[in-house]
Amino acid sequence: MTIARNVINHLILLAGTAFLILPVAAIFLSSTHPTATLAREGLQLSWGGHMLENYRTVILLEAGFSDRVTPLAMLGNSLLVGAGVASLTTVFSLLTAYAIVFFKFSRAGFVFWLVLVTLLFPLESRFINTFEVTSDLGLINTRLGIVLPVIAAALGTFFYRQYFKSLPGELIEAATLDGAGPIRFLIDIVIPLSWPATGGIFAIAFMIGWNQYLWPIMISTDDSLYTLVRGIQLVGPISGPGMALAVISIVPPLVLLLAVQRWFFKTLNLPVDRNSSSM
């Protein structure tokens, strides 16, 4: 029975792995076919003979009204947006969770659940109001206007809170006896101990920022602000060069995820809450 159970478990894992890899494999293999084949037959699962031609077309791309939409420019914009969203989301999530966990104030639990409720209202559901605020701040056609509305991610606050709840209360007692205030406790103890959670949250937030598509379209009309994800639509999603650009757009987040995979999986496997003391 044990052998049969192991075989079934491995078959399930293999089936799940194949299910997740198949779309990526289809995009990569489709990037080796000519546009005419893709337009006629759709995504391909076989090797074509136009890989070099498609990738050369993408690398040499100069599009837009002023020919400023190039792969290098789009890559730079994507990196700036992804890194900006990841950095600001990580910082604000850490500070929010730190205040909720270590500063015992009335209605702290209510504030935390109020933060989580924002998960029910994604950016797409508040485009109009967000656009009005961004316009009033003069951030139309700016990278900051693309980044700021995306950083309000309750998921990071949730992960940090769970991680802080798992820290032993003796740390706070020792820091208090040592005369450490809230800022010193945060900088000297909490942040160094939170690197695993920080790496995972940074990776998640980076992918959220990297994959933004609708909001950049709505907030910017400047060719110089095109990202790789937005450039796929410009090149043509059902085309050989479009598939090649899609493959290229997958590489940076994949590299980041591989670099922080240990921290990433630790973040997804946080321990249950423990009682924490207040500062």
Briefly characterize the structure.
The chain is mainly alpha-helical. The chain has helices at 2-30, 35-41, 51-59, 71-102, 108-117, 127-136, 143-147, 154-165, 170-177, 182-193, 195-210, 214-219, 228-235, 240-259, 261-268.
Shape: globular
Average pLDDT rating? 84
**Count of all domains:** 2
Q: What CATH architecture of the largest domain would you give?
A: Orthogonal Bundle
Q: What is the C-level CATH assignment of the largest domain?
A: Mainly Alpha
End-to-end CA span? 53 Å
Would you identify the CATH H-level superfamily of the largest domain?
MetI-like
Q: How many β-strands, per DSSP?
A: 0
Briefly note the structural class of the backbone.
mainly alpha
Rg calculated over all Cα atoms = 23 Å
Write down the secondary-structure element order. HHHHHHHHHHHHHHH
Please outline the major beta sheet: none
**How helix-rich are the residues, as a percent range?**
55-70%
User: How much β-strand is present in the residues?
Assistant: under 5%
Total helix count? Answer: 15
Under CATH, the topology of the largest domain is which? MetI-like fold
Give start-end ranges of low-pLDDT stretches: 274-278
Output the keywords:
15 helices, globular, 69% helix, mainly alpha, 2 domains, disordered C terminus, 279 residues, MetI-like fold
Q: How would you describe this protein?
A:
The chain starts with a helix and ends in an 11-residue tail after the last helix. It has 15 helices and no strands. It is globular. The longest helix is centred in the N-terminal third of the chain and has 32 residues. It is mainly α. The C terminus is likely disordered. It has two domains: 60 residues, no CATH class; 201 residues, Orthogonal Bundle (MetI-like fold). Helices cover 69% and strands 0% of the residues. Helix 4 crosses helix 11 and helix 11 packs across helix 15.
